[in-house]
Amino acid sequence: MDDDTTDEVFAELKARPLGGWGVAQIAAGTGLAVYAMWVGILQPGFRRVPLRLQVPYIPASKAQVDNVMTLLRCRKGGIVDLGSGDGRIVLEASRQGFIPAVGYELNPWLVRLARFHAWRAGQHGKVSYRREDLWKVDLTECKNVTVFLAPSVLSLLQEKLQAELPDDALVVAGRFPFPNWEPFRTEGQGVDRAWAYSMQAQRQHMSKINVKHTVMNLDLDKELTKEKGYT
Ligand SMILES: C[S@@+](CC[C@H](N)C(=O)[O-])C[C@H]1O[C@@H](n2cnc3c(N)ncnc32)[C@H](O)[C@@H]1O
């Protein structure tokens, strides 16, 4: 097609009014492109993960990483980041002496990127990034766990951590706190805030809540029985 013909085609397209069908086609095309980018680049590997458990990649800021590390001061041993993204938390933890430092991430591009960052930082032998679903990882041996996930998955994750982690484990959550747990320390403000939870204290806290609920239910039963004149 020569330049004159191209100009003519563009002129004709410009002159043509964009009807409802045209707008619908553009909207569908844009939607498809966004979806293809989401599936192909941002969320590959997530096909088997239910939609409500999918968490997008939003990397922790420098301040967030620093706050997490402050809360982990005085801890040692291994560390696990659930949903490790480009590996920045695992890498920093490894620099600060946590061994082994492991990140679990489903997105293969991010796993590759994390390994590249570790190699560039001279830490590649010390960290490990595994392409695994965090919901299927066995956490029974983990002493230090970090999570930067979305509020929609935190109550389910809370149950998994409570069922699997040892009593002396410490969990640090960034950006959003766990819905029913009591942190023993927090660090930072606003979006940079991080919350530290002791597993043992959490179990005690949850069992107190359960006892309270049981007593409340028993009281309610008694009241109902009285109300209905059954006593
Ligand atoms: C909000 S980003 C946090 C990334 C990193 N921890 C950081 O702070 O920079 C959450 C990450 O969790 C990953 N993720 C979400 N669901 C996952 C799953 N079921 N298994 C493994 N990784 C998952 C996402 O791909 C994403 O990279």
UniProtKB/TrEMBL annotation:
Give the Gene Ontology MF terms in alphabetical order: protein-lysine N-methyltransferase activity
Q: Does the keyword Protein biosynthesis apply?
A: no
Q: Which GO terms describe its biological process?
A: methylation; regulation of mitochondrial ATP synthesis coupled proton transport
Sorted keywords for this record are: Membrane, Methyltransferase, S-adenosyl-L-methionine, Transferase, Transmembrane, Transmembrane helix
**Chain ranges passing through the membrane:** 20-42
Q: Matching InterPro entries, A to Z?
A: FAM173A/B, SAM-dependent_MTases_sf
Coiled-coil residue windows: none
Q: Name one GO cellular component term.
A: mitochondrion
* Family note: Belongs to the ANT/ATPSC lysine N-methyltransferase family.
Q: What is this protein called?
A: Adenine nucleotide translocase lysine methyltransferase
Its taxonomic placement starts with: Eukaryota, Metazoa, Chordata, Craniata, Vertebrata
